[in-house]
What we know:
By secondary structure, the protein is of the alpha/beta class. The chain is built from six helices and 14 strands. Strands 2-1-3-4-14-13-12-9 form an eight-stranded mixed beta sheet. The chain is globular and about 45 Å long. The two termini are 14 Å apart. The mean pLDDT is 95.
Amino acid sequence: MIAVVDTGGANLASVIDALERLGAAAELTKDAARIKASPRVILPGVGNAADAMKRLASAGLVETLRGLTQPVLGICLGMQLLFESSTEGPARCLGVLPGEVARLKGPLPVPHMGWNSVKADGSEALLAGVPPNSFFYFVHSYRAPEGPWVTASAEYGESVPAVVRKGNFSGVQFHPERSAAAGSKVLANFLKS
């Protein structure tokens, strides 16, 4: 059973539906014991970083999530929550990855909403079997910081980290559950990790 952390975001049902289309059993949960026992954990999110962190804290999940040793995938806001902080709120986040998430600078309209190609460095297991420069669906106003954890990026008036990884934690800024065949392949790769 894949644990999908109930962050209160709008994309929770679509993430579960996408996993079930791939044949994976998934459950939406705030239960720390169930999350710890799950072979894989997805931290989805659409919304505000400060609000999401308050919900995780009130559910007693901050330390649980920081301490996970199984594969964890953050999606959109869930990826941003893996960093130390965000200027959105502002918010102290999970601190799995260093640095601060900040608002997109432009010159293009914010939020970044729509399909964008992703360029990978070739090392990212989540993108195995995904054709180079494939398009994924993005909806976000904030971007993760650059660093050695970035394994793929998109261009939107500036370089935007699209995939990050540190140990068992990975994150995607785009929405794989809304990204057609390429997104399904990313989720399938995560289920095999």
